[in-house]
Amino acid sequence: MFKTIMKKLNIFSKFLIAGLVAVSTFSCNDEHDFSLNEKPVVSNTGETTLTITEGSEATIELAVSQSIASSIFVLFKPATDDFDFTSDFVIGEGEFIEDYHTGGPEGYVVEIPAYSDTFSVPVEAILDVVPEGSESFDMVMSSYYTRMGTVEGETITYTINVEDYIVNDLDIEFSWDGTYTDADGDTQDLCDIDFDLELYDASFNIIDYSYSSCPEGLYITEGELADGTYYLVPSLWSTNDATFASPMDFPAMLTVTKVNQTQTTLDLSDVWNSTDGGYVEGNSGYQYVYLLTISGSNYTLTDGMTGDVVFNAKVANFLEGHAKRKAALSKK
């Protein structure tokens, strides 16, 4: 009787083991065991040379060789290490990672969702006002997590051509970047110092201003103001009770740009200092005055203290306005 029971148990065990093996084999095939099967491969199906105007975007078209139940991640980074393109482009959802060695941005990580057969990656060229002309950059796409998928040929190189976005607007930035050492020997940010930027009409009515930013800035769109002459006035309102370990000149700069066409930076570092302070501290010379003349889409900036033309959007070459102003002042 005992032998009969054991014989039946042995037979049952054999069937049970065979069943488990069959279930195990089925499960491995169903879950894409990449140790047995080829990993999904991401390939490019569109253009590898893209031309984009600043402020607009182009699209990279990708295909996945087989859809799986997990996301696949790819990395877009500059082809050379000396170029940080995160300041010029936004790729995908804009998720970028830092370089492990430098701590700076390495590139953009893009997630291709689960079960995707195709995927589109937007590439946006960031709009700025600086006239740079036509530019060309190379970037490389590679796998970020190779466990879930690979890129065809390991990497795919894209060439991005960027064109300036041309408008007849005027951008004005008043900056004083830097630090100072206070009376206690601590390093402080010069943004603590209260500079202002104002625009007046010919009757000395204020029509635009920037009071609470660092840097301060004004933006004039084409046709926003009638033709005529206006007063552009950068000024130092107050040092806000800051203390200084030693006297210093404030590194003030006025940058005037006809958007993506013409730009000049005027050095005002000899105008304001920690000793004289600003309006609140009783400095009668807390303002500096420029005359801004508008004629259609042309802008001319004249130094109100010397009469020198320091910016003229009609010409391609920038005028060295501040050098002339300093030379004129030295003769007085």
Automatic annotation (TrEMBL):
The keyword Signal applies. This is Calx-beta domain-containing protein. Residues 1-18 form the signal peptide. Keywords: Signal.
